Amino acid sequence: MTAFPTIGVVMIAPQTQFQHFRQLNIQGKLLLPNAWDAASARLFEAAGHPALATTSGGIAYARGWRDAQRIGREAMLSEIAAIVRGVDVPVSADIEAGYGLSPQDVAVTVRGAMEAGAVGVNLEDNGHGALAQPLFSIESQCARLAAARQMADALNAPLWINARVDAYLLDLGLSAERRFAETLARGNAYLAAGADMVFVPGLADPGEARRLAASLNGPLNLMALPGVAGASDWFDVGVARVSLGAGPMLAVMGLVRRMADEARAGVWTAMAEHHYGFAEAEALFERR
Questions:
Q1: What is the pTM of this model?
Q2: End-to-end CA distance of the chain, in Å?
Q3: I need a labelling partner for 100 at 20 to 30 A (CA). Which of 202, 236, 264, 268 fits?
Q4: Facing residues of 124 across strands?
Q5: 51 vs 41, 133, 148, CA distance in Å?
């Protein structure tokens, strides 16, 4: 068992928030949008979404960093806290690969995310270039997930831990069947180590999604992709949760690029088409 520093009084989200988010995931068919700042979080909440997550890529880009942990733990936790403060719905935090290699590093990050108000976390098995191989070994990632669960237990909170498997996202040189088998083995091992859900970004085939959802010992989370028509395609084959990921933030970047190009020509057609009124924006944050 991982040894942690003595934990004093820590302010975290109410138990009702943890339980509500847990129930949303268990009941399934959860479309989870990913926010990158307080404004995007408030807009998603105002649209009626019962819960939100953060996007590490969206947050990094908005602050002038590339993705993959370049922003650093403290900066990311500060952004997560700002998003949590901006809404009343439960928020799950994208903590990337935990901002460190060891189980202790993961535990520190999980504690920080919970202190920021998060009721769930995503933890990746992607080494982001810090390992001799692309992914953490199954054994190492299981130890890191166990440390996350131990920290949540120490804080007396049912944190929803979403274990991300990057065998589809990365080109590992595997055959399609070997990639599926690797993902399944990792997913079930991660669930046994303390994760609540398995997240497989990059998986795009409904048939493979059906096989994986039926073979995992827990719920499956997939990510919205340009070639997939909508969440129902995933829900119909047994996927429990679909995350928007960095997609909305990247779409905003595409819109800003269009406005930038138009402004060079002296027009603002896109800006007018997508206008969000000043009064609307003020009202959005009135209660804050």
A1: 0.94
A2: 42
A3: 202
A4: 164
A5: 10, 35, 21
Strand partners, 223: 243
**By C-alpha distance, which of 236, 229, 247 is closest to 28?**
236
Q: Given its phi and psi angles, is residue 69 left (phi above 0), alpha (psi -120 to 50 degrees) or beta? A: left
Whole-angstrom distance, CA of residue 204 vs CA of residue 174: 16
Three-state DSSP state, 278: helix
Structural domain spans, the chain: 15-245, 246-288
Q: Which helix (H) or strand (E) holds 163?
A: strand 160-164
Contact 91, 118 (CB under 8 A): yes
Q: Is 6 exposed, middle or buried (0-12, 13-18, 19+ CB in 10 A)?
A: exposed
Report pLDDT digits (tens) over 122-147: 999 999 999 999 999 999 999 999 99
Architecture of domain 15-245: Alpha-Beta Barrel (3.20)
Q: Mark out the alpha helices in the chain (DSSP H runs).
A: 15-27, 38-46, 56-62, 73-85, 103-115, 138-154, 176-193, 206-215, 231-235, 247-264, 269-273, 278-284
pLDDT per residue over 155-204, tens digit each? 999 999 999 999 999 989 899 999 999 999 999 999 999 999 999 999 99
